[in-house]
Amino acid sequence: MAVVEVVGRDGWAELVLNRPERRNAIDGELGVALADRLADLSADAGVRCILLRGAGGAFCSGLDLKAFNADPEPEWLPRFGAIWRRAHKALFECPKPVVAAFERYGINGGAAVALAADLLVAGEGAFVQVGEVQQGMAAPYNMAWLRLRYGEALAARLTLTGRRFFGPELERLGVAYACVPDGDVIAETERLVEQLASYPDGSLARIKATMRAYNDVDADAWFDRATTAGAGRGPGRLRSVDPRAGD
After folding, report:
1. What is the spatial distance between Cα 61 and Cα 126, in angstroms, rounded to a whole number?
2. For the chain, which end, N or C, has fewer CB atoms within 10 Å of the first or last residue's CB respectively?
């Protein structure tokens, strides 16, 4: 079973985080697969738009603590920082719009993946939680995406409080494109993606390229700002996560 699955549609594709037995938690294998599948879809001329979702009715619960603390340690653990950077770089550089169907939750690292989407369709009961502040960590990728898309005040609200922000509030804050009943998230996101994919060939990519042109740094430089500024850890309250993991 692929940990990140691609389902081709007419002019668009579904990109599915596919570890439902672990609530689509992030490990090294998922990080590698996410970057690889995004690269494939970015190069596919038949794909104009990407729908990103989690399998099993939830988006992503964050880092897989069980995997990070396995004994013996997984072979990918020393490389996880580079793996996760590559996945976020693939999201940053994807020339097609990424639209997230946001169900139940995106926590810490899962929140960063949700915030990386160009458009977010959230369920009323779904929440984003950037909770690293409660664990003595800096949330560099969450901060990088928040500052790319929003101002400092909104980034502070989500990252300094560490609390849950549910669908209606995400819509009010402009983080979610739309908030819909929980049972309608997939269908509503599919309708949106189908609409986008029906636009003239190349128009979505041109609009996204124009948006990115206003940034004065490339992906590595952008993420370096956050990871360098947030280097180190606090008092070690998150003992169960390897400090090399970040978010």
Report:
1. 12
2. N
Domain count, the chain: 1
Mean predicted confidence (pLDDT) in 52-60: 98
Residue 86 lies in a domain: yes
Strand partners, 165: 128
- Torsion angles phi and psi, residue 45, rounded to 5: -65, -20
Name the burial class of residue 49, with classes exposed (0-12), middle (13-18) and buried (19+) by CB atoms within 10 angstroms of its CB.
buried
Which domain range does residue 114 map to?
4-197
Q: Is residue 67 part of a domain?
A: yes
Per-residue model confidence (pLDDT) at position 215: 83
Report how far residue 28's alpha carbon sits from residue 197's, in angstroms, rounded to the nearest whole number. 31
Residue 26, phi then psi, degrees to nearest 5: -90, 130
Instruction: Give pLDDT tens digits for 206-245.
Output: 999 999 888 888 999 999 999 888 775 543 333 333 333 3
Q: Is residue 210 part of a domain?
A: no
Burial state string for 176-208 with b = 16 or more CB within 10 A and e = fewer than 16: bbbbbeeeebbebbbebbeebbeeeeeebbeeb
- For the chain, the distance separating the N- and C-terminal CA atoms, rounded to the nearest angstrom, is 25
d(CA 6, CA 120): 19
Q: pLDDT tens, 152-173?
A: 999 999 999 999 999 999 999 9
Examine residue 183 and state whether it is found in any structural domain, yes or no.
yes
DSSP bridge partners of 15: 6, 52
The CATH number of the domain holding residue 154 is 3.90.226.10
Average pLDDT over the chain reads 92
